[in-house]
Amino acid sequence: MVSSSDSRSSTAKRTATGRMDSARMFVATRNAAVIGYFSLTMGSVRRVQAPAKLVRGMPAHPVGMVLLARLAVERSQQGTGVGASLLAEALRRAVAAGEVASARLIVVDAINEGAAAFYEKYGFVRAPENRLRYYRRMKDVRASLD
User: I need a labelling partner for 34 at 20 to 30 A (CA). Which of 28, 47, 74, 146 fits?
Assistant: First the structure.
């Protein structure tokens, strides 16, 4: 089960409020234990920072994006599909947010090369300026969810 931090403990609520609603955290639980989470926030990226094939034909101004700010799985749950399920839910929510806020890209910063391989497996493209930053076009994500 994935739920928003809005319905989590008062500590989580204070943390989210204290950060001025800069991101939303979603938590996956099993038998009342946290097994993973992800966090999303909105932003923009300069066109020259994104892979050329993803921004071809776009105007020269910054491109709206949804940042997958965090995605983590409890160690004992790694390799069981929890990460893939969390990513799928994060992408669904990113598409919904992107439709409201006009985001064209989804961006993630992989924590290490293992995480980078995970994102590549799901269609993310490495950024030219940072070997651990990955992009995916919103329209491609939307098509994969249909």
Answer: 146
